[in-house]
Amino acid sequence: MRYPDFLQDNGTIGFVAPSFGCATEPYKSAFMNAQKKWKDAGYKLQFGPNCYVEKGIGISNTPPECGKELQESYCGQENDCIISCGGGELMCEILDYVDFEKVGQAAPKWYMGYSDNTNMTFLLTTLCDTASIYGPCASSFGMEPWHSSIQDAMDVLTGKCLRFEGYDKWQQDSAKDWENPLAPYIVTEPSVIHKFPNETLDLTGRLLGGCMDCLVNLLGTKYDKVRDFTERYKDDGILWFLEACDLNVMGIRRAMWQMEHAGWFQNCSGFLIGRPLCQGQEMMGLDQYQAVYEVIKKYNVPVVMDVDIGHLSPMMPIVCGSMAQVHAEGNKYTVQMELR
């Protein structure tokens, strides 16, 4: 596994928009405030050509232009790390315009984003043996004040910390809108994790995962080299981290079934499942826990659900490709990542 150098003091942060950009509110104002914070901290900033563009369908620009921006930014020397401007809908369409062989030969650098950015964070790891960060996009850094999870994301980028504890509360409804672009997280819901089996658990393995909506879209395509990856790192065990955006509980069940039947879960050592956006939903007797656990219980590995990963903030930054040790006891858990 290749690990990039950490962002140094006075280093350069690059920004790209392979999915949505920051062309509209509240994202534009939040992004501008984030830039001020980074500049005040001494960092230099470098912008891809699509950061403020709104010409594409489900992404910032046309697929060729988005793919060109992403590849040139990653393979170039103008920045030291990259943060995606935002998530979106159709980042998958840019993949044909990214030369992953060239990306894999370039000096590794940290790429951070989530949701639709799974198309890059996941493929960097599985195709290029390069670690990435499943974490917040650029505009989140503009909130006032920062939630501790935002500082945690910066601490990963700068190498200050790779051990994090689950947050005490989460946000059910965001206050961020065009009138309040800098609104912080309004965390009101107590964090309650669900463990299978329901006891103190210790999980170890190499972290792999992202947004299920995107992962199942990649499954079976030429970009699906997951079984090769899990075989290559079978001695480590694969510790999957998964979360869902648009999928309802039936969609989650189908996604889990599809990944399982494609052989993705071979050599799995455990699962970390984030709170889905359909949190609390039940359909025809199926809830979010059965949607996942009934598919993977045959592997007899520990499963921790409702962890701080994904679309219901706050989200813990996860280094995809790293080795991790997770300890879950009661409603508390810690994730210790190691770059080996």
Describe what you observe in this structure.
With 340 residues, this protein is α/β, with parallel strands linked by helices. The mean pLDDT is 97. The chain has nine helices and 18 strands.
Quick take:
The chain is 27% helix and 24% strand. The protein is α/β, with parallel strands linked by helices and 340 residues long.
The major beta sheet can be summarized as: 8 strands, mixed
Q: Order of strands in the sheet with the most strands?
A: 6-18-17-10-11-12-15-9
Record field, number of beta strands: 18
Alpha plus pi helix count: 9
Helix content: 25-40%
Mean pLDDT reading: 97
Strand portion, in percent?
15-25%
Instruction: Determine Rg (CA atoms, Å).
Output: 19 Å
The global form is globular
Terminal-residue CA separation: 7 Å
Structural class based on helices, strands and sheet pairing? alpha/beta
Low-confidence stretches: none
Order of helices and strands: EHEHEHEHEHEEEEEHHEHEEEHEEEE
